[in-house]
Write a structure and sequence with these properties.
This is Lipoprotein. By secondary structure, the protein is an all-alpha fold. It has 2 helices and no strands. The relative contact order is 0.05. The model has no long low-confidence stretch (mean pLDDT about 85).
Length: about 80
């Protein structure tokens, strides 16, 4: 009998703990932190992309200068 009583009490406690969730009070607009976080993450990526483009342009200019110097000497 004590086992039945224990099971019944446990069931009552579990059922009492499982109540309906409360609906949200109001829908709040998205905090601007999300865009700030995205911008903070995107800034180093953009900086690296610009540095890569500059390095590529400098390499092309150097290659063109070397080609120009070797083509005028080549004779």
């Amino acid at each position: 009998m004590s086992r039945t009583l224990l099971c019944a009490m446990t069931l009552l406690v579990l059922m009492a703990g499982c109540s309906k969730p409360k609906p949200p009070e109001k829908e709040r607009p998205v905090e601007p932190q999300a865009t700030q976080m995205r911008d903070a993450m995107q800034a180093p990526v953009e900086q690296a992309r610009k540095a890569q483009e500059e390095a590529k342009a400098a390499a092309e200019a150097q290659r063109a200068a070397i080609d120009a110097a070797t083509s005028t000497d080549g004779g």
